[in-house]
Amino acid sequence: MVIDYVLSFQLILGLIFILTLVESDPDPLHDYCVGDIKSPHDFYSNGAPCISPERTLASHFATSSLSEVGNMNQFNFNVTLANTNYLPGLNTLGLVMARIDIAVNGLVPPHSHPRASEVTILLEGSLLVGFVDTSNHLYTQQLRPGDCFVFPKGLIHFLYNTDLVNPAMAVSGLSSQNPGAQISSLAAFRSNPQIPDEVLKKGFKINGQDVVRIRRNLGG
User: Fold this and answer.
1) Which in 78, 96, 198, 210 has the greatest CB count within 10 A?
2) What is the protein's major site of localization (predicted)?
3) Which of 40-54, 68-82, 95-109 has the lowest average pLDDT?
4) How are beta strands 156-160 and 107-112 bridged, if at all?
5) If you write DSSP's letter for every residue of 77-114 in order, what string do you get?
C-alpha cells in the first residue's frame, strides 16, 4: 500500500524539521557552502570545499537520486543516498537523506551509524525495526506506511521486511553529512586484515569451523 503523496511530502518535511533540531555536525559559517565535488583536491578535509557563491545554482540544492530503486545486495536491500555527491548544497548542513528498499523477506542487518541519529519513515510495505541500547535492551516496533521510528546515534539497529509478498520502501534522514555505516557481522568477520580467529572464537563462543563457515556465508 502506498500512502497519499501529500501525506508523504508532509512527513518528509517533518523529518527535515526534526533533523534541524538534532544536528551533530558543526554549524555552517555561511548561508550555504555548495560542495565542490568535481575538482581534484590535494588535501583531506572534514567535508567538501565550497564553490564560489557566484557559481551557485538552484540545481545544487535539488536531486532526483532517490527516485529509483538500486540493485539489491546479499541481504536483499539497497540504500540510495542523497549526499553531497548528488546534492552538493547539503555540504556543511549536517544532514543526509537515504532511500531504503528492502525486498520480500529482506533485511538491513544489525548495523550502526557512529556519527548520526536516524529518523525513518516507512512509505510502502511493512517493517519490523529495532535497536539495542548500551544495557542490551531491545526496542522493536512494527511499522506500517506513514509510521516513523528513531534510531539513536551510534546504537546497533535493524530493519526487517517480514512481508512474504510485498517489498518495503522507506526514507531516512540522518543528522550528519557523513554518518558512516558499519554492519556488525561484516565488521567482525569480513575485516581487512581479518580479526584473528581466536578472538572471534572466544568473543562469539564458536569454534574454528564456525568462523570459516560464517566468513564464507558473508562472501569472505
Assistant:
1) 96
2) secreted
3) 40-54
4) antiparallel
5) EEEEEESTTT-GGGTTS--EEEEEEE-TT-EEEEEE-T
Q: What is the pLDDT of residues 38-70, one digit of tens each?
A: 766 565 556 678 888 889 999 999 999 999 898
Tell me if 157 sits within 8 A of 6, measured CB to CB. Answer: no
Q: Which amino acid is at 175?
A: S
Count other Cβ atoms within 10 Å, centred on residue 90: 25
Per-residue HEC secondary structure of 35-81 comes to ECCCCCCCCCCCCCCECCHHHCCHHHHCCCCCCCCCCCCCCCEEEEE
Write out the three cell numbers for 161: 521486511
CA angle in degrees (0–180, nearest 5) for 76-77-80: 150
CA dihedral (122, 161, 180, 150) positive or negative: positive
Enumerate helices (H) and strands (E) in the chain, giving the number of each.
4, 10
Average pLDDT score over residue span 195-212: 97
CA angle 144, 86, 34 (to 5 degrees): 120
Residue 30 Cα distances to 33, 143, 161, angstroms? 7, 38, 41
